[in-house]
Amino acid sequence: MERGPFESRHPLVGLVDETIRLNSRLRSVFAAARQDSSLNDSEQMVLNAVVEAGKAPTVAQIGRSMGQARQLVQRAANALRDGGLIEMADNPDHKRAPLLRPTAQGLALKRELDARADIIAEELLPAADLDSVREAAQALRAIRRKLEAQLRTR
């Protein structure tokens, strides 16, 4: 196992550092996938969150899930709504927090962006590495869910 000058730090701190670095590299590599879409990072993040949600989320739920300020998510959601990519629906549980749902146009754009991203991913990683990528994604998902559960109890 590779060890650096900070080997005494908690493994979670090392994971945070690697995640930040990986996120930066992946964002620059996959920026080409949305090059012609006119979406900025925040809008892409919110569109992904809305399309991939199990049930329609609110702005606050997306903000908490993504670790982003509600105001940033709200601005992105407003831009997506104005662009016809998402719609805001009444929320029976909260009068002032509408539910966000993708429109047909939003779903089509998401599919197009995903197809472009798939091409980039295929060029980056040979098929032989896919199992390790799946395992890493599952491990990160498990850690995220544990952290989210812990944060909800605070």
UniProtKB/TrEMBL annotation:
This protein's name: MarR family transcriptional regulator
InterPro entries on file: HTH_MarR-typ (IPR000835), WH-like_DNA-bd_sf (IPR036388), WH_DNA-bd_sf (IPR036390)
A Pfam family of this chain: MarR_2
Domain of life: Bacteria
Domain HTH marR-type: 32-133
UniProt organism field: Novosphingobium beihaiensis
